[in-house]
Each structure stands twice: as C-alpha cells, then as structure tokens.
Amino acid sequence: MSPRRVSTSRSTAPRKVREPRSPLPPSELVLFEAGDLESESELEGRAFYSLNLSGQDADSMAFTQCRFRGADLSSCHLDQVAMTDCLVTDSSLANLRTDGGSMTRVRLAQCRMTGVNWADGLLRDVTIAECRADLSAWRMTKFDAVSFVECNLNGADFTNADLSGAVFRDCDLTSAVFHHASMQGARFRGCNLAGVGDVSNWKGAIVHHTDLMSLSYGLARAAGIRIEDED
Prior knowledge:
With 231 residues, the chain is mainly beta.
C-alpha cells in the first residue's frame, strides 16, 4: 500500500476577517471636571462630555473604559497614549498627534479626525465609523482587526503601515498614500480608490470588483501603461 502523501504547500486563501471586538462597558462613570490632562496619569471610567481639552500636551496617559461625547481634543499632543475599552462619539480629534499610541477595543463614531497624526502605533479591535479623517497620517502603525466604515480618508497617509488586519468599507480614499505599506489581507469594498499612490505594492490586498474601476488608473500607472484621453 502506497504511503499517503501530505501536501506541504501553504494555502493561498485569504484569512477570515475578524470583526473588531466592542469596548467593554464601565461598571460606573464619573464625570471628568474641566482641567488639564496630566502626563503618566491613568483615568478609568471617566466621562468626558462636552469638554474643551484642545491644545494640551501630556505623555504616557492611559484611558480605560472612558466615554467621550462632544469632547474637543483637537491639536492635543499625547505621545504614548493608551486607550482601552473607550467609546468616542461626536468629538473632535482634529490635528491630534501621538507617537507610539495604542487603541484596544475602541469605537470612534461621527468624529472629526482631520489631520490626525497617529505614528508608529497599534490599533487592535478598533472601529472608526462615519468619521471625517481626511489628511490623517498613520505611518508605521499596525492595524489588527480594524474597520473603517463610511469614512472620509481623502489624502490619508498609510506609509509603512501594516494594514494586513484592516477593512475599509464605503470609504473615500481618494489620493490616499500607501507607500511601502503591508497590504496582504487588507480589504476594500465600496470605496473610492481614485488617485491612490503606490499600488505596485498592493500584492495580497482584497479589492471588491466594484472598486476596480476607481483603482484602474493607479494600476495602469504601476504597470507603465500610458492612458490617452484623445480620440
């Protein structure tokens, strides 16, 4: 009887998409009174409702099971910030900057995130829905079970990001930059991909057939094809 042959080839099928886990609810919430954010502070179960915290600087802050609603964190500089089990709604993070920041089980909905600069960070189990995040920058950030849903990401910068765990649904990614990004497993559905840069490194990305038309010009440029508009 011939020995049974076992295939040692690695499967090329795309891995199953894991939906982001929801933030764990706090046992109780305590209102955060207006004041300054302090470096190396740990805030748990705090409610940031209709507060103006814009322009503040603080390092190594930790927000755990916090809720932000109508909060203004625009132009804050929060290096090494850690957000865990947080819910952020109807708030402004415009031009917020962080280096080495992390989000774990976080949901951001209907927020203004224009110009956010989240560099060299980690997003795990994060949903960003109906947010304006145009001109945002996510350089060198790793995305693990992250969903962008109905977001304006016009001109967003994903240079050197690891997008293997990212899903983009119904997003405007016009002129977004993906220079040297890891795209294996990244998924796009219902997105505008017109003018995206560096599609030559999109090997392994999963693009819905309805999105190919907006991506076609970028693919043609990457292949060295010249497109003429004249008859």
